[in-house]
Amino acid sequence: MSENYDLIILGSGPAGITAGIYAMRAYLNTLLLEKNYVTGGQVVNTYEVDNYPGFPKITGMELGEAFENHARDLGLEIRREEVTGIARDGQGFRIETEQGAYGADAVIIATGTRCRTLGVPGEQNLAGMGVSYCATCDGAFFKDKTVIVAGGGDTAVEDAIFLSRICRKVYLAHRRDRLRAAKILQDRLMQLDNVEILWNCEINEIVGEQQVTGVEIFHNKEDRYTGLDVDGVFVAVGSLPNAQGLSHIADADQNGYIIAGEDCQTSTPGIFAAGDIRTKSLRQIVTAAADGANAAASAVRYLEDFHK
Ligand code: NAP
């Protein structure tokens, strides 16, 4: 028979960990499942977090570690297992993982997002051979080399800034003539001598045999193509929800994000969605943490009725 918990939380990003902290303070018998070996979700891919109150200049890895220590100090049980499915089981839910199965009276889904790919020729075969989705993880391999970053959001601009400290030259290819990133990041970027922004440009193909040697660029305003020699390509073109195996359990929008309001209640009683996986307008560490608190509070209320 599988172990039964009051609450199972899926994911250890800021939403999942905060939900865990609040659940422990409410004395819920709680399990947190995380498929990765490190805690923090996408936070650990950020070199320097400078918008989480009280922790200026902390690295993503340090913040992830601090999250885990805080939750464990309160007694939260964290298991490193990948969830493969979730189904209704009587009044509660059954969570399948690669190692086994667990029962839960309530579930908080805080599985976050993953990187979107460009979907261009060469990207898949050269992944790990010059194509990267994580500048802080792979940047060091490109010391004194030339790289190109694709995207115009916070991630792309942060990546370009980070890579400018390591690489000889950094190109930033953005498909429009205006960046989406926070103004403070744009200002920092513009001050860097070794960064060149390629406006209205899209990477059309990534070239190389065993290793990236260049890209073909489509200049979308001029309808022409040019080649550019680069040693690495950093893809930072947004994210997709991590809802594999979960989407049937609660309603999602057309992009796969689980529909829930600020109380994190989904279309299924007992299932809550928190953090980047939830339909919302601002995806930040601090809004994910806020979701975690709201989701746990909603779960506490739900379980009070459930256990009556
Ligand atoms: P994002 O904000 O969705 O930006 C994605 C960027 O990629 C956009 O500039 C978009 O262009 C471009 N893009 C999308 N598909 C493309 C394609 N197929 N080809 C070329 N370009 C494409 O994604 P993000 O930067 O990863 O950020 C995700 C969320 O995390 C955001 O809410 C962001 O604020 C947050 N975040 C915050 C921080 C921070 O606060 N320090 C750091 C990282 C991320 P368009 O602009 O033309 O749409």
Distinct small-molecule ligands in the complex: NADP nicotinamide-adenine-dinucleotide phosphate
* Overall domain count: 2
Classify the secondary structure makeup into a structural class.
Answer: alpha/beta
**Cα distance spanning the termini:** 24 Å
Q: Enumerate how many helices there are, as a single number.
A: 6
Estimate the strand proportion.
25-35%
At the fourth level of CATH, the homologous superfamily of the largest domain is FAD/NAD(P)-binding domain
What name does CATH use for the topology of the largest domain? FAD/NAD(P)-binding domain
How many E strands?
17
Helical residue percent?
A: 10-25%
Listing every helix as H and every strand as E from the N terminus to the C terminus, the arrangement reads EHEHEEEEEEHEHEHEEEEEEEH
- Tell me which CATH architecture of the largest domain applies here: 3-Layer(bba) Sandwich
Q: Could you say which overall geometry the principal axes of the C-alpha atoms support?
A: elongated
CATH class of the largest domain: Alpha Beta
Residue stretches low in confidence (pLDDT < 50, at least 5 long) are: none
Question: In a few lines, what is going on in this structure?
Answer:
With 308 residues, this protein is α/β, with parallel strands linked by helices. It contains 6 helices and 17 strands.
